[in-house]
Amino acid sequence: MIAVTAEEMRALDRWTIEHGTPGHVLMERAGAGATRVLRERLRAPRGCVVVVCGPGNNGGDGFVVARHLRRARVPVEVWLTARPDEVRGDAARMLARWRGLRGTVHDLTSADRLEALARRLAGAAAVVDALFGTGLNAPVRGVAAGAIAAINSCGAPVLAVDIASGLSADTGTPLGAAVRATVTATFGYPKVGQVVYPGVEHTGLLAVVDIGIPPEAVAAVQPRVSLLEQQEVGRLLPPRPRDTHKGHFGHVLVVAGSRGKTGAALLAAQGSARAGAGLVTLAVPATLQPVLEAHVREAMTAALADTGDGAAAPGDAAALRALLAGRTAVVCGPGLGLAEETRELVAQLIRHCRAPLVLDADGLNAVAGTDVLRARSGPTVVTPHPGEMARLLGADTARVQADRLGAARALARSQNVVAVLKGARTIIASPDGGAAISPTGNPGMASGGTGDVLAGVVGALLAQGLAPFEAAVLGVFAHGAAADAVAARQGEVGLLAGDLLGELPPTLARLQTAARPEAPVGRGYRVGA
What we know:
The protein has about 525 residues and is of the alpha/beta class. Helix content is about 40%, strand content about 15%.
C-alpha cells in the first residue's frame, strides 16, 4: 500500500485538479467520505457532534462533514478558529453552503472562548477535528493549541479529518501539540506520519477515503514509500521446485561471536537456517569454535584468527579469501565485540567480500565514521537500531527517532546500502530513495538477540537470490510476523529471540500461501492419492 508525504499528496491533488477535477469536488468527496467513516466507525453517535475547524482546506472538509451530518438529522455545531471572512477558496465555498443550511458558526478566535468550547465538548457525542491538515509545518500555538488540549481532555470519541491536527504528515512527530484521535479518515492514501510512531498513537484507527485520485496521477507523481502488506510481501519468496536440493538455496557465511557473546552468533546462524538457506557456516574466533561445535547441528563451523581472549582478529588475507570463497551471502557482526583487531577484520572482510553482505551490530560499530561501505562493490544491507544509526550518521539518537524515514534514507543514499532502521515500524530504505515501512512486530521483541535472528534471516534470503531491498523487506516483515504469532500464543512479556526461530518456517509458509492461494505451499505426492 502506498504511503505518501505531504508534498506527494499535494502533487497528487494538484495533478487531479489540473486534469479536470475541481478542488471543491475533491473537498466534497473528502467530507462526505469522512462523514461515512464517522457514522460507521463511531456507531452513528447519538447526541451533538462538535466540529472544530481551522480556516484552511482542512476546515473546509469539516464544513462538509457538518453539512452532511445536518442533512442526516444528526445534531451538529461548528466552531471556527478564525473570522468567517478570513476563510478563503474552496473552504469559503463550503462554509457558505453550511451557512446556507442556517448553520451557526461559533467563534473560537480568542483564548477566552476556549472555556466555552470545553463545556460543549464535555457533553458532545463525538468530536470532529478539522483544525489543521497535512500542510502544517510549524509548531501549534495559541488558541489552536488550546483547542487541541480541550479535544484531548474531553473524553468523547474523536474523528480526525485527513490527519490528526498538529501531527507531522512526514515524520509522525507532534508539532507542539497534536490531537489524539479515535479514528482518522485520511484522503487518497495513508500519510507516512500516520503509519510510523509516535504518529500511530495519534491516528487511532486509520480509514482511507477514496476521493478519486486517478492512477495516472500516481504514475506521474511516483510516491516512493509503501506500507507493507502480507500478500505483496509473500510474492517475494517463490515456491520451491519439487526436484530441488540444498545447493539451490545458497550458502550463508555468518561471521560472529566473541567471548561472552556466543549466543548472538548461534541465533544469527539459526536464523539463516530457519529462513531457508541451503547451507550455513558459522565462523567464530578459534578459541570459541569447540564451544559452538557442541551447540550447532545444522550449521558447519569455521575458525577465525583469534586474539587469544576470544575476540576475532584479521589473520591472513589469503585465509579470509578462502573462507569467503563460494559463499552466496555473508552476515557479519552479531556479538563480534569491539576489539581493535576485530574492527580490522571487519574492514578487511568488507574489502574482500564480493557476495551480498549483511552488516549488523558490532560490524556496524566497526565502520562508524568511515567510508568503507561506500567503497564496496557488492550489495550491502545494514541493520542498525537507532543508537547504531546515530553513530553511522554522526548524529544523536533523538534526532534519528524524530525522523526515522529521513535517517534511513540518508544512510542508504550516503553509503549506497539498503538501510534497515529497526524499531517500532521498522523502515527499509534503498539508495535510490525508495522505502518501505513494516507494520509487523510487537514490544516483546525488545529483548536481546532478536536483531541477530533478523540479520541471519536477511542473509538467508540474499543467499536464495533475492535482491537486497526485497530480501530486507521480506526478512523484516516475516521476522515481525513470527514474533506476532509467538505473542498471540504466549504473550509479549518473556518473548525470547529463540522463540522466533521455530515460528519462521510457518510464517514464511503463510506469506507464500497468502500471495498464491491457488498453489498451497508444500503440496506433494501422497501414496494412495
